[in-house]
Amino acid sequence: QAAARDIGTEVIENIARLARESIEALPATNKEPALPYLNADHDFHMALVDAVGNSRWSKIVSNLRDESRVNGAYRHLEDNQGLQHSAQEHIGIAQAIRDRDPEKAATLMLKHLEYARPHGYPPAN
Protein backbone atom coordinates (compact mmCIF):
# COMPACT_ATOMS: atom_id res chain seq x y z
CA GLN A 1 0.00 0.00 0.00
CA ALA A 2 2.89 2.39 0.68
CA ALA A 3 4.05 1.92 -2.92
CA ALA A 4 0.58 2.59 -4.30
CA ARG A 5 -0.10 5.74 -2.29
CA ASP A 6 1.19 9.25 -2.73
CA ILE A 7 3.24 9.16 0.46
CA GLY A 8 5.70 11.85 -0.54
CA THR A 9 9.40 11.90 -1.26
CA GLU A 10 10.39 12.57 2.34
CA VAL A 11 8.58 9.47 3.60
CA ILE A 12 10.06 7.35 0.79
CA GLU A 13 13.57 8.59 1.55
CA ASN A 14 13.04 7.84 5.25
CA ILE A 15 12.01 4.26 4.40
CA ALA A 16 15.13 3.87 2.23
CA ARG A 17 17.33 5.31 4.99
CA LEU A 18 15.84 2.91 7.54
CA ALA A 19 16.48 0.00 5.17
CA ARG A 20 20.16 1.00 4.96
CA GLU A 21 20.33 1.45 8.73
CA SER A 22 19.04 -2.08 9.25
CA ILE A 23 22.07 -3.36 7.33
CA GLU A 24 24.41 -1.15 9.36
CA ALA A 25 22.88 -2.49 12.59
CA LEU A 26 23.60 -6.13 11.79
CA PRO A 27 25.75 -7.91 14.37
CA ALA A 28 29.19 -8.80 13.03
CA THR A 29 28.96 -12.33 14.47
CA ASN A 30 26.31 -14.65 15.93
CA LYS A 31 27.82 -13.97 19.35
CA GLU A 32 26.99 -10.26 19.26
CA PRO A 33 23.56 -9.11 20.40
CA ALA A 34 20.89 -8.79 17.73
CA LEU A 35 18.99 -6.07 19.59
CA PRO A 36 20.35 -3.17 17.51
CA TYR A 37 19.24 -4.95 14.35
CA LEU A 38 15.85 -5.84 15.81
CA ASN A 39 15.32 -2.18 16.72
CA ALA A 40 16.29 -1.08 13.20
CA ASP A 41 14.02 -3.77 11.73
CA HIS A 42 11.15 -2.53 13.87
CA ASP A 43 11.73 1.05 12.76
CA PHE A 44 11.78 0.02 9.09
CA HIS A 45 8.58 -1.98 9.30
CA MET A 46 6.79 0.66 11.31
CA ALA A 47 7.76 3.33 8.78
CA LEU A 48 6.06 1.20 6.11
CA VAL A 49 2.94 0.74 8.21
CA ASP A 50 2.88 4.39 9.27
CA ALA A 51 3.13 5.46 5.60
CA VAL A 52 -0.32 3.99 5.02
CA GLY A 53 -1.74 6.62 7.37
CA ASN A 54 -3.90 4.50 9.67
CA SER A 55 -2.84 5.22 13.25
CA ARG A 56 -5.00 2.43 14.69
CA TRP A 57 -3.36 -0.12 12.37
CA SER A 58 0.07 1.27 13.29
CA LYS A 59 -0.61 0.73 16.99
CA ILE A 60 -1.85 -2.83 16.41
CA VAL A 61 1.18 -3.78 14.28
CA SER A 62 3.61 -2.17 16.72
CA ASN A 63 2.07 -4.09 19.60
CA LEU A 64 2.18 -7.39 17.70
CA ARG A 65 5.81 -6.83 16.75
CA ASP A 66 6.69 -6.06 20.37
CA GLU A 67 4.91 -9.21 21.55
CA SER A 68 6.75 -11.27 18.95
CA ARG A 69 10.09 -9.96 20.20
CA VAL A 70 9.22 -10.57 23.85
CA ASN A 71 8.27 -14.14 23.01
CA GLY A 72 11.45 -14.79 21.00
CA ALA A 73 9.76 -15.20 17.62
CA TYR A 74 12.83 -13.87 15.77
CA ARG A 75 15.45 -15.90 17.61
CA HIS A 76 15.66 -18.50 14.80
CA LEU A 77 16.97 -15.84 12.38
CA GLU A 78 20.13 -15.31 14.41
CA ASP A 79 21.39 -18.87 13.89
CA ASN A 80 21.35 -19.09 10.08
CA GLN A 81 22.33 -15.69 8.79
CA GLY A 82 18.64 -14.89 8.69
CA LEU A 83 19.26 -11.37 9.92
CA GLN A 84 21.52 -10.63 6.95
CA HIS A 85 18.93 -11.95 4.48
CA SER A 86 16.18 -10.02 6.20
CA ALA A 87 18.13 -6.76 6.12
CA GLN A 88 18.99 -7.18 2.43
CA GLU A 89 15.32 -7.72 1.66
CA HIS A 90 14.57 -4.33 3.23
CA ILE A 91 16.61 -2.69 0.47
CA GLY A 92 14.55 -4.34 -2.27
CA ILE A 93 11.27 -3.43 -0.58
CA ALA A 94 12.37 0.19 -0.17
CA GLN A 95 13.41 0.31 -3.84
CA ALA A 96 10.03 -1.03 -4.97
CA ILE A 97 8.35 1.70 -2.93
CA ARG A 98 10.69 4.32 -4.40
CA ASP A 99 9.83 2.97 -7.87
CA ARG A 100 6.11 3.16 -6.99
CA ASP A 101 5.72 -0.50 -7.91
CA PRO A 102 3.04 -1.90 -5.57
CA GLU A 103 3.03 -5.38 -7.14
CA LYS A 104 6.77 -5.82 -6.68
CA ALA A 105 6.65 -4.32 -3.18
CA ALA A 106 3.86 -6.72 -2.20
CA THR A 107 5.68 -9.73 -3.66
CA LEU A 108 8.91 -8.82 -1.85
CA MET A 109 7.10 -8.16 1.42
CA LEU A 110 5.25 -11.48 1.31
CA LYS A 111 8.54 -13.28 0.68
CA HIS A 112 10.17 -11.26 3.47
CA LEU A 113 7.47 -12.09 5.99
CA GLU A 114 7.43 -15.76 5.03
CA TYR A 115 11.19 -16.01 5.47
CA ALA A 116 10.93 -14.53 8.94
CA ARG A 117 8.44 -17.15 10.03
CA PRO A 118 9.99 -20.03 11.97
CA HIS A 119 9.83 -23.34 10.10
CA GLY A 120 6.90 -25.32 11.33
CA TYR A 121 5.04 -22.19 12.46
CA PRO A 122 2.16 -22.07 12.87
CA PRO A 123 2.08 -25.60 14.19
CA ALA A 124 0.13 -28.08 12.09
CA ASN A 125 -3.18 -29.19 13.61
Give your account of this protein's structure.
- With 125 residues, the chain is an all-alpha fold.
- It has one domain (9-116).
- Helices cover 65% and strands 0% of the residues.
- It contains five helices and no strands.
- It has helices spanning 9-24, 35-51, 55-70, 82-98, 102-116.
- α1 (9-24) packs antiparallel against α2, α1 packs antiparallel against α4 and α2 runs antiparallel to α3.
- The longest helix has 17 residues, at 35-51.
- The radius of gyration is 14 Å and the shape is globular.
- It starts with 8 loop residues before the first helix and ends in a 9-residue tail after the last helix.
- Residues 120-125 have low confidence and may be disordered.
- Please bin the fraction of helical residues: 55-70%
Count of extended strands: 0
Uncertain regions spanning at least 5 consecutive residues: 120-125
Task: Give the amount of beta strand, in percent.
Answer: under 5%
Rg, Å, rounded: 14 Å
Helices and strands in order:
Blueprint: H1 9-24, H2 35-51, H3 55-70, H4 82-98, H5 102-116
Helix pairs in contact: 1-2, 1-4, 2-3, 4-5
